[in-house]
UniProtKB/TrEMBL annotation:
<dbReference type="InterPro" id="IPR022383">
    <property type="entry name" value="Lactate/malate_DH_C"/>
</dbReference>
<keyword id="KW-0520">NAD</keyword>
<dbReference type="InterPro" id="IPR036291">
    <property type="entry name" value="NAD(P)-bd_dom_sf"/>
</dbReference>
<feature type="domain" description="Lactate/malate dehydrogenase N-terminal">
    <location>
        <begin position="29"/>
        <end position="175"/>
    </location>
</feature>
<dbReference type="InterPro" id="IPR015955">
    <property type="entry name" value="Lactate_DH/Glyco_Ohase_4_C"/>
</dbReference>
<keyword id="KW-0816">Tricarboxylic acid cycle</keyword>
<dbReference type="GO" id="GO:0006108">
    <property type="term" value="P:malate metabolic process"/>
</dbReference>
<feature type="binding site">
    <location>
        <position position="154"/>
    </location>
    <ligand>
        <name>substrate</name>
    </ligand>
</feature>
<feature type="binding site">
    <location>
        <position position="65"/>
    </location>
    <ligand>
        <name>NAD(+)</name>
    </ligand>
</feature>
<dbReference type="GO" id="GO:0006099">
    <property type="term" value="P:tricarboxylic acid cycle"/>
</dbReference>
<dbReference type="InterPro" id="IPR011274">
    <property type="entry name" value="Malate_DH_NAD-dep_euk"/>
</dbReference>
<dbReference type="Pfam" id="PF02866">
    <property type="entry name" value="Ldh_1_C"/>
</dbReference>
<dbReference type="InterPro" id="IPR001557">
    <property type="entry name" value="L-lactate/malate_DH"/>
</dbReference>
<comment type="similarity">
    <text>Belongs to the LDH/MDH superfamily. MDH type 2 family.</text>
</comment>
<feature type="domain" description="Lactate/malate dehydrogenase C-terminal">
    <location>
        <begin position="179"/>
        <end position="349"/>
    </location>
</feature>
<feature type="binding site">
    <location>
        <position position="128"/>
    </location>
    <ligand>
        <name>NAD(+)</name>
    </ligand>
</feature>
<protein>
    <recommendedName>
        <fullName>Malate dehydrogenase</fullName>
        <ecNumber>1.1.1.37</ecNumber>
    </recommendedName>
</protein>
């Protein structure tokens, strides 16, 4: 019985290699911005090795960074070649957004200006919003209309909103912001507290902004203990922890990594970006995952901001999980992070007018 699989080298041919019939699939074009940066350094390998789009989908990588980083990017291109990855159909390094976004099916928007010493949050937002306005315009002009865009660069939620606003020919559902790192952190904290493998903790939710106002919510979470699924609240039986130390540990985890590593989270951020895009492309079945998506006002959240909700994904389309009970505590948390997003949106729109 022949085995059917795909390879990248000759996209439309079919070869028979002894018992194995190899169908050559068309590669998809995938862009990573900030490609010379530290998150991209981990992320590119994950994409090119098949961890995101599957082991049978070849990829052609477009790598965007700014002109002064082209030398560094050349080194990254050399290393990708040296990995000798069977699914990597080609690499295009560039400093030109229109070249980078041409015909892409997936976009990881990682590149952003880092916060410099003495820089106000407002100044950082202004600098980054301008980048995402320009990239939205370029995506609108040259990307596939079904491109799936994941914004990682901060402030991720508001950058995703601005990017979508300046790409009106692409459905706004196709723009999302990353809160998966926060979800993974929350899941891992609960698994350690309970003493089970991380895969046995499910339905943890990140609501709102990828910032210190985010709400990591364990009230719907379940864990498998001794072969049976139980509510995390019942297992831990410590409301003060779940509303206190658990929430603040997740909110401040990024700062804790910076304090220890002297650099921001990169390995875990790249893994989270891979998780987010893989689930968006390949589906979640009944798993809940948190994604920043354009709010339709669900759960009393402000409309038209990119707000993180629990979603499930089927056939490449996300859907917000419905019917959850929101406690008084959760209400306050959801409202606080929503308020911050409305303020950020207003600041960003003011910048875009200039
Ligand atoms: N959403 C999340 O959970 C999350 C987690 C971690 C980091 N981040 C954010 O991800 C971003 C990248 O982090 P990093 O550690 O890789 O940073 P980094 O500084 O190592 O790399 C950023 C890269 O982006 C490039 N860049 C800057 N402006 C660009 C532009 N206009 N077009 C293309 N490239 C551009 C830089 O030249 C640099 O190579 C930061 O904004 C960081 O705050 C988000």
């Amino acid at each position: 019985m022949p085995i059917w699989c795909c390879a990248a080298s000759a996209p439309t041919e079919t070869h028979v290699v002894s018992e194995v019939v190899v169908i050559m699939a068309e590669p998809i074009r995938v862009v990573v911005t900030g490609a010379a940066g530290q998150i991209a350094y981990s992320l590119l390998y994950q994409i090119a090795s098949g961890a995101v789009f599957g082991p049978q989908q070849p990829v052609f990588l477009h790598l965007l960074d700014i002109a002064p980083m082209m030398g560094v990017l050349e080194g990254v291109v050399m290393e990708l070649a040296d990995c000798a990855l069977p699914l990597l159909a080609g690499v295009l390094p560039t400093a030109n957004p229109e070249e980078a976004f041409k015909d892409v099916a997936a976009a990881f928007l990682v590149g952003a200006m880092p916060r410099k010493e003495g820089m106000e949050r407002k100044d950082l937002l202004a600098a980054n919003v301008r980048i995402f306005k320009e990239q939205g315009q370029a995506l609108d002009k040259v990307a596939r209309k079904d491109v799936k865009v994941l914004v990682v660069g901060n402030p991720a939620n508001t950058n995703a909103l601005i990017c979508s606003k300046y790409a009106p020919s692409i459905p706004k559902e196709n723009f999302t912001a990353m809160t998966r790192l926060d979800q993974n952190r929350a899941q891992s904290q609960l698994a350690a507290k309970i003493g089970v493998p991380v895969k046995d903790v499910k339905r943890v939710i990140i609501w709102g902004n990828h910032s210190s106002t985010q709400f990591p919510d364990a009230s719907n979470a379940v864990a498998i203990v001794g072969g049976a699924q139980k509510s995390v609240s019942e297992i831990i039986n410590d409301d003060a922890y779940l509303k206190g130390a658990f929430v603040t540990t997740v909110q401040k985890r990024g700062a804790a990594v910076i304090a220890a590593r002297k650099m921001s989270s990169a390995l875990s951020a790249a893994k989270a970006a891979s998780d987010h895009m893989r689930d968006w492309f390949l589906g979640t079945e009944d798993r809940w995952v948190s994604m920043g998506v354009v709010s339709d006002g669900s759960y009393g959240t402000p409309r038209d901001v990119v707000y993180s909700f629990p979603v499930t994904v089927t056939n490449g389309k996300w859907k917000i999980v419905e019917g959850l009970t929101i406690s008084d505590f959760a209400r306050q948390m959801l409202d606080a992070t929503g308020k911050e997003l409305v303020e950020e949106k207003q600041e960003a729109l003011d910048v875009c007018k200039d």
